[in-house]
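Honest question from a wet-lab person: if I give you the sequences of every part of a complex, can you actually get the arrangement of the whole thing, not just the pieces? Trying it with mine:
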Amino acid sequence: MNLNQQPHMASPYAPPQPGYQMYPQPGYGAPHPTQQYAPYNGHTSLYQQGAPPAGYSPYSGFATKTYAANVLSDSFSSSPPNLGQGRAPPVSGAPPVSASDSYSQYAQGNVQNGPPSVPSQPQRPPVSQSYAPATVHPGTQPTYHQPYEAPTTSVQQITGHMAGMHIGGPAPNLAGSTYAPPPSSQPMSSAAFTSTGPPNYTPQLASASQPPSSMSMTPGPPPSMYGAPPTSQPSFPGAPTPPQSAFAGVTPAAPPVSQQSFPTGAPMSQPHYSSVPTSSSQPSMGGPVLQQPPFGAVPPASAQSQFPGAAQPPVSQPSPYHSVPPAAAAGFPPPGGATVTAPPRHPGMQGPPFANQSMSAPPASQPNHTGAGMPPGPPIGGVQGPPPQPGLQGFHPQQNGAFGQMRPPQSGYAAPYPGQQNFGIQPPPPAAAPPAQKRLDPDSIPSPQASETQPVQKTRHRIDPDAIPSPIQVIEDDKANKGSEPFITGVRGQVPPLVTTTFQVKDQGNASPRFIRCTAYNMPCTSDMAKQSQVPLAAIIKPLATLPPDEGPLHLVDHGEGGPIRCNRCKAYMCPYMQFIEGGRRFQCSFCSCVTDVPPHYFQHLDHTGRRVDCYERPELHLGSYEFLATVDYCKNNKLPQPPAFIFLIDVSYNAVKSGLVAVVCEELKTLLDHLPRESVDEESRIRVGFVTYNKVLHFYNVKSSLAQPQMMVVSDVSEMFVPLLDGFLVSVGESRVVINSLLDQIPEIFADTRETETVFGPVVQAGLEALKAADCAGKLFIFHSSLPIAEAPGKLKNREDKKLVGTDKEKSLFQPQVSFYGNLAKECVAQGCCVDIFLFPNQFVDVTTLSVVACSTGGSVYKYSHFQAQTDRDRFLNDLRRDVQKPMGFDAVMRVRTSTGIRATDFFGSFYMSNTTDVELAGLDSDKTVTVEFRHDDKLSEDTGAFMQCAVLYTSCSGQRRLRVHNLSVSCCTQLADLYRNCETDAVISYFAKHAYRTVLSSPTKNVRDVLVNQCAQILACYRKNCASPSSAGQLILPECMKLLPVYLNCVLKSDVLQPSAELSLDDRAYLRQLVSCMDVAESHVFFYPRLLPLQKLDVEGDALPVAMRDSEERLSRAGLYLLENGLNLFLWVGSAIPQDLLHNVFGTASFSQIDPNMTSLPVLDNPFSKRIREIIESIRAQRSRYMKLMVVKQDDRLEILFKRFLVEDKNSSGGASYVDFLCHMHKEIRQLLS
Amino acid sequence: MAMFQEFIQQNEDRDGVRFSWNLWPSSRLEATRLVVPVSCLFTPLKECPDLPPVQYEPVLCGRPNCRAVLNPLCQVDFRAKIWACNFCFQRNPFPPTYAGISEVNQPAELMPQFSTIEYIIQRGPPTPLIFLYVVDICLEEEDLQALKESLQMSLSLLPPNALVGLITFGRMVQVHELSCEGISKSYVFRGTKDLSAKQIQEMLGLMKPAPAGQPGRPPAAQEMQPTCRFLQPVHKVDMNLTDLLGELQRDPWPVSQGKRPLRSTGIALSIAVGLLEGTFPNTGARVMLFTGGPPTQGPGMVVGDELKTPIRSWHDIQKDNARHLKKATKYYEALANRAAANGHCIDIYACALDQTGLLEMKCCSNLTGGHIVMGDSFNTSLFKQTFQRVFSKDYNNEFRMAFGATLEVKTSRELKVSGAIGPCVSLNSKGPCVSENEMGVGGTSQWKVCSLNPSTTLAMYFEVVNQGGKKKKSVTLCWADVQSQMQHIESSFDQEASAVLMARLAVFRAESEEGPDVLRWLDRQLIRLCQKFGQFNKDDPASFRLSESLSLYPQFMFHLRRSPFLQVFNNSPDESSYYRHHFMRQDLTQSLIMIQPILYSYSFYGPPEPVLLDSSSILPDRILLMDTFFQLVIYHGETIAQWRKAGYQEMPEYENFKQLLQAPLDDAQEILQTRFPMPRYVDTEHGGSQARFLLSKVNPSQTHNNLYAWGQESGAPILTDDVSLQVFMDHLKKLAVSSAA
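Yes, you can. This is the full assembly:
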């Protein structure tokens, strides 16, 4: 698949060389920095050697363009390049020429940039402008920089830069897919781009495009590649400048990155290097191969290898990278300049190069970070680091000014973010003129080229999907960059690793991202800025999140009878941000500035730095998260709470009995009751349990331990619910074990012959509520319900499913509850601390919208098992139930988010109820529940102090202890939009957008909701383009590094089932998903919108690492493959129709494809490592999610495949959802409209 | 005189009837002058060992609005096989089965000695008896335990085929399903919400939709099916129910300090009634309510749950200060009427030290013929034995209880029916023999008596124009000659029956009128009677004489005036209701005991003798045994008490003393054996606090006011301002002879 894609890539590249090249390069470059590197190196050398603009020009043009593209892409927008470039480059063998033009342009731009940079700059000008700057930044060692940059770019491209650059994604994608191309591209970029490049490319591209990359690779590419590489190399030498520039352009950015990245990538890269040097060594590494390809033969292999690599992210990437490095290395070493570059680089470079290549992405990102605040640079050097930053800053202005942008990119590299921006700036863009072309990006990118290439470009109407930012790439890069080091929360305003990255957190004064994740870690200082950028400011808070064992439980602080120490005015709790003054006698609140006396028992002297001497002995003074023991003042009625209770309410109507539900539940409860949540100190859970069954009437059970047999109490008067008994209803499991078992044995028998089909629901909730009221405790109801409550009772519902309303203005009414009864009931529940979990087992419409109101307002969950059948759905249901029962939770909770002056929590999303504007009341709060809080400015923030937020949750623990959990988080504030964009968390933004949109469907037609979303996104990106990116062709899509995935993810949200339902989707399903999303954390929402697709056919059965995920697109699936797709709710195993026999045999134990049973819900247990490993993977994936996913086996071309395909979110879907590429184009159009 | 005594005795033995006048006046005017109306006490189920049951249907008069039963007073033409109804004079042919009739071959109903006859009606399937226990679980642990044991014990006393059901209540009301295995199941209702019978049946799942397409199916089968869940034959659920009762817990809802437990008696009864109404209408059924306190919530609540608000007293009622009284009474009345309409009776067993709301609930029993038993605790022999006695059997080994009686009175044209007083409800059957002048429950010639036992006695009042009687199961015929001679009429006066009949009228009035008004009315009647039948010289009290047949009457009235039936002083409203309830249904003998308790004296000077109910009878060397029906008091005189305390009875040489002490105990035992409900048994002595039971009953001939005037050492002074019989009589004479009256 990849290959195929790659070919595409390649082709695109060929056509819009500029753009494409850019992209590809970026993409590729990033991934395949090697290519670029190689070229770069060459270039650099070339550059150094001389400034043969002419020769270069084409080349350089290419290079530049590519670079530029890269740069652009790096910084921003590779996307535009991607779009247009992708194709254009490949297409255009010719483009090179144009490229040259562009180059010139670039050069100019570069020059501008260059000037500051160094003489080399002039040489590079075109390409290198940005580069040059970069180089400049680095210092006199332009070469280095250049090379670096190049690498960096590549790296960056791959990594953050990639993102930053363009669609970063593309780069990554490219990287993956590119790899294949890379070889070609490499040659292309480097060589191809060079003079020879174009022609070669074209052919290559053509060939490539047509046949899979591999194809192209092998046949055309090799030669071309060969040719190209050599050429490129030659070219480099020949036209040092261009290459340099190109390199510079590319490299500059890259270098820093690379350097930075190097550290991380180092190991890999080094080996590569080693290999690289040998060039022959390439074989070992995928990278090497690539390198080789650039050199010559490699390409095909590399391409292929890369592809595979792509499939297997780590490998592929590394390989490409590696390959790149080698190339780079190769390139570097050769050129004299290389020496310069080399030396520095070598140290770092070696690592870096590899890093760049392999690491490239990560490094890039690091660099970015570095730029921002990270001294990733350090490794490479103080040179890069320091210079870059300054340079960056300096550049920025420049960039803003004009081409300077280019530099910024560089600078960006240097200074991570700026760099990114710079990248985004795409020097080439200036050419923007291209708009003429239909395809915005592609066409637009190299206007000059465009003119030339236009025809070509037009021919390749399609944008190479590999050329656009790839989520997988970003995820993998983040893993590589941030997965190894613990995330230390001490520094204000750091962006934590992505949710997909496994990392350890060390609490040093800010709450772990597991508890709070923000959309922006640099808040704009003023509301104007915030409005301008349109970036939502929100925190996604998961107060009771489960921490991994190595991060330990939170400390419990007891401040004695007086309760926790708090600010007198705003009542904020003691936290690390409080400033002790007057020798420790008083403290000043960091939230409201009020000064409060320190109570005598809490007094402590201050040390010379003004910190309390006992600072590290008290968790509340140095940790971001901790708990207080609450006093009686924090309890309802000033009375310490009773231990909570669980009440199980089981539908025993005909449907429930027949589906086997009743039997399953009763059987399971017998064992499940032994696992109720408990404090670690308690031997036995203190939670009491009660049982109710119901159909049209309710049956309560007295299971008092002294009874010989359970007693059933029927309440038929459902119009005014009450609890018929007190003593004996809620019992301790330990004491009443025998009676409970007897009861659970009997329930299925008693109702085995029931003929009652009608059910009630409102009274059921009321019953539980009343029971808790009577027992005077908080608790949770588990309701197992089967059908629409049509029996005469409060809360009676009618069937209102009306598909005709879908898509109309009245559609919103479908999301509104049909009666207000449940809303009022929920209020009462909240007042009592009664959390409601609903398990639905409908065979037809049950009106989830209305029923779930109770759960959604009380902090409960809704589970839905349509057409439940005991045999097939048992595991899923039981696992959910087990988890739901066992998970740690707090009861009767109130959450309050306090913020420092200047911002204010204004809006909340999640499962809770609010009776005023500040207190989030949660009858129950479990470890999976998330509350999303939106902030608004009500004043200016200060850059110096930053902004603080404190989230305090008062709750009753499962043992009945009243506690306060406090999470503190400080974020930086910025006056520069660039800082804002550099410190964003796209996953969190998307999560927020989704929640907001899903709530808005209650009040607006879904179409409006979608439009608003698109619009806001466009504004965000346009604002970035306008204010942070270097000026460039309007045709270029420039995306901020941190947000380069915004379009793809947003598209996923837009086409999600709630906002754009498929015809067969029921209203219930939509309502179900809607409420589900509202309390998802970022990790869940991320995978929910962008499902994880794992290729299994080439599984490493020995290791315990998961295979690298793939992008969710059908064209990436191989007929001979086996893929696992999961989105947190569904789990599919897709089986290609050409699946190899042995795989078939190993996994399914069958001899032929047709013998696979599509109804199986678990894989057969076979005694072979492959089967074992796959089952392990499935288990481990299930373990990660809060809900158990039933395995569905989807055979290619089977009817189930339609369902499966809806989850391939990069593709068009049947209900009108746009493909990623199309959406990106659309988004670009929107942005351009905004800009004009 | 002797003639009348015999006649009266015979009448009572044979027919269970005592008339106030055994000769009737001939005109309305004369009847009015008699003061005491022509009326009778009728004990329908009086146990008559010689009465042969007749295994066929009665022969009825053919006239549609008459339907009188063939009886010995009818004129029979044996040859024409025709009989003439003695009420409407309609001539009726005998039915074919009477073809062999002749002067020598007469059916039982034509023989004069069978003026009362019992037909066993063969129609319809025999329906099992139904006992529905409605049990309060807001009791003290000890009480509840005792009650549970009594209930468990009662299961063995029920006929095996009887259907039994259980409803418990406290804050909630639970209807227990009895046929479940492995799990006990009950339906629960909240105690504050009144439900219609239909709702109750729906909620109990008794309204199964009839199977489609079979409308013609006999309803019985369907009805039986669902019903069985709550009402099961004793033999089937004996064990289950015993266990169930054994596991009954006190109402678990917390009762905070200063509160009464929430008790949903009203709803519990409503559900019991609704349940039976839906499942077994017109079948003999007993709802047996066991309650240990007042209803405190929901409809029918008598008092709030705040302990600081005491339950209503007579004082409150007179001041119109009883908030819940009217509403509750109305509620229970409605319930009682529903139950009565379906032929179900309601018993109330109320055991508590404080009042339990009998005043409001009494109608449930009064209208349906159920029992009311009042005690201090379920853990007393008073309750236990009384309850046991509910299930006592007669010499035929049949339960001394009957259900669903319809009492119809037929009169000849000279008499009209004014009304009845007793445990019955009107069936509103208008007819030519119904008088417009109502006395008691009037305006009808038919009454429903849902439950009755051999001693159940109704008072029937007539307006003289005509006369007769019938009964569904047994037919009693009463007649008397009409006399215009005043002397004869006077000698036919049955002063005992009259006293009871008048007392019933007075008590009936007292239920709705102010106490003093009733007393005034009673006094006026007495004075008028004395004026009419006394012999005196005008304005000369000393000359006043009453004939023998009237001589005791004023004394009865004296004691009646002091009785708890008319005096509420010192009695709670509940007690008054309780006393009145029993007074309104007991037979003549018991009623007289209630009006004027019997006092026996035991001494070394002779065999036990009845003595005057007078303070002069209270002597130091006597032991007194007083039976007031409700109490059985053994009172040891001062000396006797001292001896007893000294333990002489233990010494062999004072064996006689021991015997003396034992004698009243034995006699008391005898009374206890037969009395229903069990009287309160009091063993006290001179100066004992419980001696008040005795002192409050005796005629206060010696009080602190006149003690020295009498100057005798005999007797004990009673500390009261009540007038003594002597004073009463003096006044009566004065008024009777006064020409001003």
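Two things worth pointing out. The interface with chain A takes residues 172, 174, 177, 180, 182-190, 193, 195, 199, 202-205, 243, 247, 249, 252-254 of chain B (CB under 8 Å). Chain B has 22 helices and 29 strands.
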